[in-house]
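Can anyone check this?
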Amino acid sequence: MNGPRVVALGGGHGLATSLRAARYYAGELTGIVSVADDGGSSGRLRQELGVPAPGDLRRCLSALAADDSLLARSLEHRFDRGSLQGHPIGNLLIAGLTSACGDFEIAVREVARLVGAQGEIYPATREAVTLLADSDQGRLCGQVTIERGSNIRNVRFDPPDPSAPEGAVQAILDADQIIIGPGSLYTSVLAAVVVPAIRVALLHTRAQRVFVANIANDRGQALGFDLPEHVEALRRHGIVMDAVIAPPGTFRVTEVDAEVTLADVADIDNYQHDPQKLGTVLAGLLTY
């Protein structure tokens, strides 16, 4: 192995970006992906087939796939008409393999093999879960509902103690660096890290735990949060960070209980992270 063992956790586009960033310097790379999404194509497949949400896993498989894989380039193709309208090929492939073999984790592993993924990808939970949270409006049920909430707290699951893949837990314990974020705080980041076995592994790992803040904070669920509020929300859910990466001039950084690195990691549009810039900063944080 040449290079550090890196694990990235979360969901959505943010986790896919972190995986692309880590590919620049990691010797071993593992992604652990939330499967709590209940909207769009993933929500339809959950309702119709009873499978965990495949959408965020699809994005991460695309991020790790071999550059010359035609299948990898096809994963994101979305049908625009007929009964399959709105479904990406990757979601249907994961769902179809799950139905055929009866095991979601095996289905994800097989798609990873087919696209030549340069790393391991695990769902955060073995089974379909519903994300729950409390807010000023009362209990919120489902990722889509929580995305529209405010003053959110106590993120958890139904069922309350979902199991995590053993490989995902072991990867966290063996890692040199763990990347959490970027992404929506409650519905992507916490939706992955509050899985009970993953939360315990994050507590006991000897790896450097790095939180990657968003480029801009325009989501209702964490609107107006500065870095202290993000880090404190993680801490309230049992997740302690060692380091934080944030763009300069975007967040208040005082009173953050972690080492803060301010760095230009934005893409040319200043809307999302540039994987190469982010990878350079993440690599520079390692002191192993």
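Reply from J.R.: I decoded it. The chain has a mean pLDDT of 91.
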